[in-house]
């Protein structure tokens, strides 16, 4: 349904809004109408006339004309396009407003809409000034390619006049435009401003994939629903109209089944329990007093292009006549000036909710007020769109995705709460009830929650002013907006605005009452420090709902912490971080014995963290890609990790116990054919292999994976290896350890079920732990290792597993002692280094060193980085993501080094000014690459070949002609091998034929990992995609294959230091030097 609506949004809205600039006879234009409302409201403000005049007028209007070459009837001609952009108010920046494509658009129209946008934003506390734009074209008469050219050209005009930018002016869709046009504008802006990291915030109303926000499509309709709902929840309003409080069973008529009209009708039906009895479109209307099925009506309209003849409904050919039908609430959501001096007297509705801009003329408004109707004005009622646009803009500037930070934690906590309630009261919730209670807040939920809070808060402010001044909601909304804008301007010291002299009128009791929004503004003005703090934190805490979601709930605790509880907290904390001696001393001195508990973190630490909002942006505020390269930055990373701020992509910690998760309900298998070797195969190689079909895990939860890998039957070793190598792509070592301990501690009620399998499961957990410590000891930091030792000493030994406990202790001790040691016992004496005579000379250069020795020293440098690369460094594309780069320091270092070699190669060649020296350097580089290949250093070997193939080097015709045929054959052979090894499978075939040691072809493996990440999601139906992890395991395991086979060469400091400090010029400079060495069309005799 939503996809159908969005597909037809532009066409439908076009039909409904084509008459927007109507000016009825004897009635003011839209711009004049806004001015009249402003003047009426200004009388209640007691503000200086100069300031009111400044607020009312449009600040600046841009009117441009630009030529576009268009083809019509086979003839190409130059068409002049006229466009406008108005910025009404700069009291807040950026200015905000849509861009419309219409033949009828004019300067007066964009000024009127911009002014309305200013007051609308101020009314709902959205920190934007008002803006509006338009291009004077009928978008239906242009092709998509032509519209794109026009849109991009207009964007360039705005850029040249500084009329666009995330902090200047932010356009949005309007009549004739949509996400497509916003994408073109954003793309053009970022192309001209590549360094603007906030470029996605230059427009709102984008598609989700372009940085848009969920919930934007329905925002205006939902905001309209909230506005009318709040109005009808006021008992005095309902009583004055002779209606019941609330929206339930109210008859509703909607004019216009476009985007706003459809969603308004949908929410009034679905949330308000109202009854939509009539709907109109530009070519007719339908009415049914028993109610209409809005979803079916939209489908019918999409199929037939009209509402007429909808089954079960009365046809009304003239759409204006629908407003005279019986109803309680009328929602004009289509045209300007629908309700005028002609139609207003016929309206039977008692409540008018203005979903469109200016649907009610000045005369129509007067007539309805005289009839006693309540009008919820457009100024407030249709502000949902710009409110959610603000959320989108804020999202783009914050570089976050709302709803990610607390979702999983809330779901798990609420799941536990639901389970406890079910157990206590003996009643089971239905699946629908559970989903309603448990499901965490996603981005759309947060947007809708923030929108609701904004509309409710704004209504309360409008209601206060209405009751005090005894005026209409429209006047109250204008007064509220004007006062907020005035307060913004009076804060500008350069204006130096003071109130005009007040008349000494006696103040009544009512005028002594100050509305809370005015009181709040007064307090903020008097306390600048508080005001400044509020301005800084407003993106996080601007609405009550956002505060409730991200904040910590407070409760009054009557019981004080006892001395014993405080000591327990301190001892548990110290035990967690490893200060065992301190714990023993406190136990001895206090006489209080500590009882070990297996919690996620130190309880003391957890209590401290409760006071701090767990904001995901802590990484963005603290670290950047450069900071993480320093010791200071790494220290911050370690500190944040120790505090539990470990960053993941999509997966939060699973708090559900293994024993509490439903069994065999979520795991997904896939069948895999495995060829089985025939025993007689050696005798007859042509004998066919038999095939077995085995089950492989495709996707499972973390609990399920841990359970299967510690099953009482022996699990597959390959599964275990795959899990341990890749688990840090979806969880952390700390969580995994707690899962293993959880699996080991079988609940008593489960032990009866498992009977004689209990001991076997516990042994499997111990074997898993042993395998983990043996092969991945680097996963264990000091804190985690202390917890393992605590588990061994206080659990395994007490349970009678003394032998296994001693075995694990020995494994830990062996790894601790071997961390810094290097085993060279299997090495023969290294070959003598090929040193030049001037090895100790400060003028030593690579010309002086044997190419083979250079290759050896390069290989030693490369291998020192290659052997340190751990599996987690290759997970989640960590080397590319700023928030994960601290995990991939060795991989980044090696990749950076390999990527710099081509430029170094070219630099060394072009630094030689004479042809003979360049020829020698090229030959030397080829020789170095040849020896690197002999040493199986694929990364550096192929990097040099790439350097020799760079354009500035490849064009050196006379240099290459001077190289010997043997050297050129060597180069061509290596280049041919590089071209052939374009896939990992071909490269693996080559690896079978070589003997270690070896340094893998790094770029090929990184490309393979990128391909897996792009082609496979991390999660499948909310489960961990284990199939993806098997693919990653194959790649990473192959890459790490030669890490333990070291090279047996002597390191020569003098050569090594020069290699590490090799020069590297930029490509533009290399091209200049190349042209200088061998100019274009130069002859051989001209080259020195």
Please give a quick description of this structure.
This protein has 45 helices and 16 strands. α11 links the parallel β11 (about 350-355) and β12. α28 packs across α43.
Task: Produce the secondary structure layout.
Layout: H1 2-17, H2 30-42, H3 49-56, E1 60-72, E2 75-87, E3 95-101, H4 107-123, E4 129-135, H5 144-160, E5 169-173, H6 179-192, H7 219-232, H8 235-241, E6 251-255, H9 259-270, E7 275-281, E8 284-287, H10 294-304, E9 314-316, E10 329-332, E11 351-353, H11 362-370, E12 374-376, H12 378-381, H13 384-398, H14 407-425, H15 431-438, H16 443-469, H17 473-490, H18 509-512, H19 516-526, H20 528-541, H21 544-550, H22 563-577, H23 580-590, H24 603-610, H25 618-622, H26 631-642, E13 668-676, E14 690-700, H27 702-709, H28 717-726, H29 733-744, H30 748-754, H31 758-775, H32 782-796, H33 802-818, H34 851-866, H35 889-910, H36 915-934, H37 938-948, H38 951-954, H39 957-961, H40 965-980, H41 984-991, H42 1002-1015, E15 1019-1020, E16 1023-1025, H43 1026-1039, H44 1053-1060, H45 1067-1077
Parallel strand pairs: 3-4, 3-5, 6-7, 6-10, 10-11, 11-12
Antiparallel strand pairs: 1-2, 2-4, 7-8, 8-9, 13-14, 14-16, 15-16
Helix pairs in contact: 2-4, 2-17, 4-17, 5-6, 7-9, 7-13, 7-16, 13-16, 16-17, 16-21, 22-23, 28-43, 29-31, 31-33, 32-33, 34-36, 34-44, 35-36, 35-37, 35-45, 36-37, 36-40, 37-40, 42-43
Question: What labels would you give this structure?
Answer:
alpha/beta, Rossmann fold, 7 domains, disordered N terminus, seven-stranded mixed beta sheet, globular, 1088 residues, 9% strand
């Amino acid at each position: 349904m939503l996809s159908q609506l969005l597909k037809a949004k532009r066409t439908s809205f076009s039909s409904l809004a084509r008459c927007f600039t109507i000016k009825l006879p004897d009635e003011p234009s839209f711009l004049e109408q806004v001015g009249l409302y402003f003047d009426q409201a200004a009388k209640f403000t007691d503000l200086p006339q100069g300031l009111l005049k400044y607020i009312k007028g449009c600040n600046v209007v841009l009117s441009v004309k630009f030529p576009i070459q268009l083809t019509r009837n086979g003839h190409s001609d130059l068409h002049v396009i006229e466009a406008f952009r108005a910025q009404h108010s700069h009291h807040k920046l950026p200015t905000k407003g849509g861009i419309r494509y219409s033949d009828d658009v004019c300067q007066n129209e964009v000024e009127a809409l911009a002014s309305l946008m200013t007051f609308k934003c101020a009314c709902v506390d959205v920190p934007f000034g008002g803006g509006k734009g338009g291009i004077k074209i009928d978008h239906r008469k242009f092709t998509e390619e032509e519209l794109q050219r026009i849109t991009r050209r207009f964007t360039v005009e705005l850029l040249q006049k500084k009329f666009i930018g995330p902090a200047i002016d932010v356009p949005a869709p309007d009549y004739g435009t949509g996400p497509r046009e916003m994408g073109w504008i954003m793309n053009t802006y970022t192309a001209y401003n590549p360094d603007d990291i906030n470029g996605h915030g230059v427009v709102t109303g984008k598609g989700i994939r372009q940085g848009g926000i969920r919930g934007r499509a329905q925002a205006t309709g939902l905001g309209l629903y909230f506005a009318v709902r709040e109005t009808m929840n006021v008992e005095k309003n309902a009583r004055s109209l002779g209606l019941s409080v609330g929206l339930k069973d109210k008859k509703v008529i909607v004019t216009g089944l476009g985007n706003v009209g459809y969603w308004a009708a949908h929410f009034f039906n679905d949330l308000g329990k109202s009854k939509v009895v009539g709907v109109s479109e530009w070519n007719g209307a339908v009415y049914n007093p028993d109610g209409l099925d809005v979803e079916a009506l939209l489908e019918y309209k999409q199929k037939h292009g009209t509402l007429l003849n909808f089954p079960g409904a009365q046809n009304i050919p003239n759409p204006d006549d629908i407003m005279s039908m019986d109803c309680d609430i009328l929602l004009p959501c289509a045209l300007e000036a629908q309700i005028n001096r002609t139609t207003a007297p016929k309206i039977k509705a008692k409540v008018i909710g203005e979903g469109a801009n200016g649907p009610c003329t000045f005369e129509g408004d007067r007539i309805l007020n005289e009839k006693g109707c309540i009008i919820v004005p457009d100024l407030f009622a249709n502000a949902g769109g710009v409110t959610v646009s603000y959320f989108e803009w804020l999202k783009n500037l914050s570089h976050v995705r709302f709803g990610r930070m607390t979702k999983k934690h809330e779901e798990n906590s609420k799941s536990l709460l639901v389970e406890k309630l079910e157990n206590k009261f003996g009643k089971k919730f239905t699946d629908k009830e559970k989903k309603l209670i448990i499901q965490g807040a996603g981005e759309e939920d947060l947007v809708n929650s923030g929108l609701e809070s904004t509309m409710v808060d704004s209504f309360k402010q409008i209601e206060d002013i209405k009751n005090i001044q005894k005026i209409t909601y429209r006047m109250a909304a204008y007064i509220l907006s004007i006062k907020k804008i005035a307060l913004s301007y009076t804060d500008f010291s350069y204006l130096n605005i003071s109130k005009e002299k007040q008349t000494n009128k006696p103040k009544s009791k009512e005028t002594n009452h100050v509305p809370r929004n005015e009181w709040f503004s007064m307090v903020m003005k008097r306390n600048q420090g508080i005001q400044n703090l509020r301005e800084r934190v407003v993106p996080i805490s601007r609405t009550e709902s956002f505060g409730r979601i991200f904040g910590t709930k407070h409760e009054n605790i009557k019981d004080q912490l006892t001395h014993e509880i405080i000591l327990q907290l301190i001892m548990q904390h110290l035990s967690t971080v490893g200060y065992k001696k301190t714990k023993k001393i406190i136990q001895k001195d206090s006489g209080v014995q500590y009882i070990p508990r297996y919690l996620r973190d130190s309880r003391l630490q957890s209590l401290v963290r409760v006071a701090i909002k767990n904001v995901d942006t802590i990484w963005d505020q603290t670290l950047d890609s450069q900071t993480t390269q320093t010791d200071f930055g790494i220290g911050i990373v370690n500190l944040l990790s120790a505090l539990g701020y470990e960053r993941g992509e999509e997966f939060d910690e699973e708090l559900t116990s293994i024993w509490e998760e439903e069994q065999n309900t979520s795991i997904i298998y896939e069948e895999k054919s495995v060829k089985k070797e025939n025993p007689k195969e050696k005798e007859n190689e042509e004998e066919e292999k038999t095939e077995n079909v085995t089950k492989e895990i495709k996707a499972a939860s973390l609990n399920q994976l841990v359970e299967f890998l510690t099953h009482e039957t022996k699990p597959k070793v390959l599964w275990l290896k795959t899990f341990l190598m890749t688990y840090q792509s979806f969880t952390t070592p700390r969580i995994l350890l707690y899962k293993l301990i959880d699996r080991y501690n079988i609940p008593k009620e489960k032990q009866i079920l498992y009977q004689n399998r209990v001991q076997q499961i516990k042994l499997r957990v111990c074997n898993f732990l042993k395998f983990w410590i043996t092969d991945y000891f680097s996963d264990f930091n000091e804190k985690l290792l202390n917890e393992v030792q605590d588990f061994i000493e206080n659990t395994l030994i007490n349970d009678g597993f003394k032998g296994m406990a001693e075995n694990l202790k020995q494994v830990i001790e062996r790894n601790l002692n071997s961390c810094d040691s290097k085993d060279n016992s299997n090495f023969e004496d290294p070959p003598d280094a090929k040193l030049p005579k001037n090895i100790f000379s400060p003028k030593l250069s690579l010309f002086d060193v044997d190419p083979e020795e250079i290759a050896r020293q390069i290989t030693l440098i490369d291998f020192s980085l290659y052997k340190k690369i751990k599996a987690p460094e290759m997970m989640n594309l960590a080397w590319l993501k700023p928030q994960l780069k601290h995990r991939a320091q060795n991989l980044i270092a090696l990749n950076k080094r390999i990527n710099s070699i081509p430029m170094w190669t070219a630099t060394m060649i072009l630094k030689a000014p004479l042809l003979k020296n360049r020829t020698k350097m090229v030959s030397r580089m080829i020789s170095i690459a040849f020896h690197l290949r002999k040493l199986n250093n694929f990364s550096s070997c192929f990097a040099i070949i790439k350097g020799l193939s760079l354009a500035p080097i490849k064009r050196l015709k006379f240099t290459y002609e001077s190289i010997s045929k043997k050297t050129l054959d060597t180069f061509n052979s290596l280049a041919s091998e590089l071209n052939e090894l374009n896939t990992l499978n071909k490269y693996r075939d080559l690896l079978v034929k070589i003997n270690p040691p070896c340094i893998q072809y790094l770029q090929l493996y990184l490309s393979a990992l990128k391909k897996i990440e792009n082609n496979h999601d991390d999660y499948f139906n909310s489960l961990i995609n284990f199939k993806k992890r098997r693919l990653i395991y194959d790649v990473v395991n192959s890459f790490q294959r030669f890490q333990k086979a070291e090279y047996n060469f002597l390191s020569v400091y003098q050569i090594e230091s020069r290699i590490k400090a090799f020069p590297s010029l930029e490509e533009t400079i290399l091209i200049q030097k190349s042209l200088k060495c061998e100019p274009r069309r130069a002859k051989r005799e001209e080259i020195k």
